[in-house]
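USER:
I would value a second opinion on how I read folds in token form. Give me a protein, with the fold worked out from its sequence. Write it directly below this note and I will take it from there.

ASSISTANT:
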Amino acid sequence: MSILKLKPATKDYLWGGHRLADEYGVDFDGPVLAEAWELSCHPDGPSTIVNGAFAGKTLKQYIDEQGFDVLGKNCARFREFPILTKFIDAKENLSIQVHPDNAYALKNENQYGKTEMWYIIDAEPGAFLYYGFTHEISKEEFEERIKNNTLLEVLNAVPVHKGDAFLIKAGTLHAIGKGILIAEIQQNSNVTYRIYDYGRIGKDGKPRDLHIQQSLDVTKREPVQPDTEGYPHIFDTDYFTVDKLNLDGKVTKEMQGHVDDASFLSVLILDGQGVISSGNDRIGYGKGDSFFLPADSGDWKMEGSCDALLTTIRAKENPIVAHLSFAEGKIDLVDENQAVLASKEVADSDCKTVGQAVMDFFVEKDITIEQVVDVKVSLQEGMDANQSLAELKEVIPCPVHIG
């Protein structure tokens, strides 16, 4: 099977509306529907396959059974499925919030941080979102404004219109305003630190939790120029590459592509109807549908009239591989041409201690976690491979392999 059609997980956050159920056909019984997680392997809401031999299984179950190769070789640097795709219906304002980067989130939350992109599907007249600060402020002023409920005075309010796109990097303070319908592509993370929530009360009758200290730790307090791109290429990041597809049904009635072994393809239908096909699969699509095409699926085609977002994972720029040898007592950092960039001796045989030494070496050499595509480990004779690997993975939040 080359095409998997997905059913979303749903979220009933208090700021949601009814458009996802009424206009996009999302199956939901509650009073409000805030988000539909269309492509998700996250434990907080995995999407489910609805067609073919894997119908009824979650996308994560499918990947676990078929192997990580279905994601493509560009995903080998991630320890889990790399992205999460969702629709967001903001009938009311979302909280002022921030997401941590990978380093902070992996250390403190045991999951990835979150860089995300928003594509504005629709917006009411006068709708806006908050995107960073109007000017740089000190940490002390930031904290004081949080305490005094004056934070909104220094936030950058950006008017939005249908077709706009924004890249929100980790550490950027932001909030979606009311009256906006969004397609979001993000890292596979559910870590959000709320800073201000308009004094709203949650389902338990209490004010919703705020995360002040974490926000102070991770927020970038200088102005951020909105990172916007256009059609058809929207954003290209280390975490996802997103392109816009438009078939008008008249001049442009079809689009053909090829899914190779580098990356899977995610297709999110924003509007329209038609047929998507690959191999022996030929499936009708409509507004709100989500499809997953495994890596190496081969040729595929879209026919009809539609707007859609196409997401893939590109190769990592400047990748680093760490070679850790317990037998030789050293760490080598190697680039894509197998040149040794730096080396360090490690005398200890305790895996957790050595793992921390590896992480410290990354920091010393100004290498980010995102750059490290693999940690290859050679063990001393007598070391238990399974136990050693488990202990190293507790400390090193990158792919780690013995051999």
In short: The mean pLDDT is 92. The chain is about 15% helix and 35% strand. Residues 167 and 227 are 5 Å apart (CA to CA). Residues 320-402 form a domain with the Nucleotidyltransferase; domain 5 fold (CATH 3.30.420.40).
